[in-house]
Amino acid sequence: MTAHSRHSLRKTPTGIEGFDEITYGGLPAGRTSLVCGSAGAGKTVFGMEFLVHGIVDFNEPGVFMAFEETEKDLAENVLSFGYDLERLQSERKLVIDHVSVDRLAVEETGEYDLEGLFIRLGDAVDSIGAKRVVLDTIEVLFAGLKNHLLVRAELRRLFQWLKDRGLTAVVTGERGDGTLTRYGLEEYVADCVILLDHRVTDQVSTRRLRIVKYRGSKHGTDEYPFLMSEHAISVLPITSAGLSHAVSSERVSSGVPELDAMLSGGGFFRGSSILLSGTAGTGKSSMAMTFLLAACKRGEEALYLGFEESTDQIVRNMASIGLDLRPWIDKGLLHFHTVRPSSLGLEGHLSSIHAMIKRVQPKVVVMDPISNFLSVADKLSIKSMLTRLVDFLKAQQITGLFTHLSTSGGSLESTDQNISSIMDSWLLLRDIEHDGHRSYALFVLKSRGMAHSHEMRKFMLTDSGVRIGDRYTSALPSSESRLGGRA
Questions:
Q1: Which CATH superfamily is domain 251-480 in?
Q2: Backbone angles phi, psi at 309, to 5 degrees
Q3: Residue 111: pLDDT over 70
Q4: In angstroms, how far is CA 120 from the centroid of its own chain?
Q5: DSSP 187
Q6: Which of 205, 239, 362, 435 could form a disulfide with 303 if both were Cys (CB 3.0 to 4.6 A apart)?
């Protein structure tokens, strides 16, 4: 054991997805952490999840002392997250104590102290052998006090009392006017300070988490997406996974034999990122779905992230070109996650995609189309989000295909988000008008690490799926016109 490991700060894992990664292990064990933020930021839920995970995952009983919400209100409010507080209390693993503080009765005298609170909290801790404590919200205790020296002294005494008992505690506090907390003192007394922020930009809600300080420990210093879903809360732990991911020489089929042949006969590299761009109606979604079905036929889980059409609409449209999705959905191999881009901020989308991927554990993922995010964010933000997603997929050895709608009249060999540089392969679909006919062509702009065709090939959507024909020439025989429906 090294000197560093002997003296490193002991930590208590929270069990909150992503949070323990950015704190390198969790909250400081046997110390007090402050979780602050404005109303509705998620402070109470954070504290409750800290306790529930402690009980369920680490066998550490906990006490939740509330100064605003009653025990009944708390149980009802967190039931939507799947927390059965009544069961945990009946098993003597959790104590919820509502302490009503009469603000008018709080007198600002030198006699004021928290001895009564210590006795009450101590009894609750001893009754179940608690290891974790949450106090929600702290400023209620000092609502009638204006003497900040007295407040600071009592806060120090409270935090020291918790430390002397060896309790890992979370104390929540309301954000003040220009300060992290109401009094602007709590953050100086706590060993770890976590700020939860709930902001609305252009009518889109976004939650962020930032670790303001963490005594005795390194920690992530960025703002991290903080998502409150119907199952739990989670933190997206990475700004970017960097360039240290492993690579594979294994190939995966595109689902179109002719395209695989254009990619030196084997398809794409496993874990690579693929960009498929083209103007409206050229067949991007159909090509992407063909790619997903090829994975299903290999017995692999496949995930479609869509931002334009509902699942049923996609199933109906793909049937017009002979792609029957329903059997693969019923087998549990093909999964859909379809939402409007405006339903969440970029960070919220990124967090929910992470959660979906971790739950499904797919081998291939399609995001269709990425260009729709232009309606809710600027180009730089979109590129940052996609870079993080690509890095995450590469770290998991997941092959990702991203479709992009090119603008008619603009340069086809560019993207609005300038994300082609982070892609390993880039395919372009384009429509060509000649002599009263419109035809479609595909060519490979790039494919890193492999020889590939530089020919422009005929691209057709037929009643039996995607077909790629011979090298494109200016002549367009009517027999080679596009068949079947368009998706």
A1: P-loop containing nucleotide triphosphate hydrolases (3.40.50.300)
A2: -120, 155
A3: no
A4: 39
A5: H
A6: 362
Q: Are 209 and 13 in contact (CB under 8 A)?
A: no
**Neighbouring C-beta atoms of residue 107, cutoff 10 Å:** 9
Each domain of the chain, given as residue ranges in start order, spans: 3-235, 251-480
**Which CB contacts under 8 angstroms, 24+ apart, belong to 307-312?**
307/338, 307/339, 307/340, 307/341, 307/368, 307/369, 307/372, 307/373, 308/368, 308/369, 308/372, 309/338, 310/338, 311/336, 311/338
Burial of 207 (0-12, 13-18, 19+ CB in 10 A): buried
Do residues 359 and 232 touch, judged by C-beta distance below 8 A? no
- Measured CA angle at 187 (ends 183, 193), to 5 deg: 140
Q: Which amino acid is at 464?
A: S
Number of H helices, E strands in the chain: 14, 22
d(CA 327, CA 159): 58
d(CA 352, CA 337): 10
Mean pLDDT (the chain, rounded): 83
Taking the domain 3-235, which CATH number applies?
Answer: 3.40.50.300
Which secondary structure element, helix H or strand E, spans residue 111, and what is its range? none
| Separation between Cα atoms, residue 176 and residue 148, nearest integer Å | 14
- Evaluated on CA atoms 361, 366, 371, 375, the torsion sign reads negative
Q: What is the Cα–Cα distance from 195 to 180, expressed in whole angstroms?
A: 8
- 399 close to 272: Cβ distance less than 8 angstroms: yes
Instruction: Tell me the per-residue pLDDT of 278-306, one tens digit each, with 9 for 90 and over.
Output: 988 899 999 999 999 999 999 999 999 99
